[in-house]
Design a protein that fits this description.
The chain is mostly beta strands. It is globular and about 40 Å long.
Amino acid sequence: MTHNKSSVSPLNSSTKTKKVVIEATEFAYFPQDFKLTVGQPVTLILKNSGKVEHDIEFENMKASLLQQSHHGNHLKNQTVHIHSLPGKTAEVRFIPIENGVFRFYCTVPGHKESGMVGFVEVF
């Protein structure tokens, strides 16, 4: 799949933050796919309704990190990662910096293979 690159223009004060809530269970995400806009700030909330820990890592989606709720969330090489314990909620704020369709998945061993995979379209 080819990904088009797009540069981010500076944000102005009228840019609204998009809130996305993803619920994690054994072994699925709800919603499984969603859309974001290049340059628009995002608050991503991971609600873990499951009985084991879950996380989300976006594959090859570049972003600028704005804020994270705790040390379990990070931006490694501009990649967004968010982690939540059972029954807990975590959040991370970021700005997508390129367009394309990107896969996200749970990095806990065996979870991705059990179906914890989704897609985000950034345009």
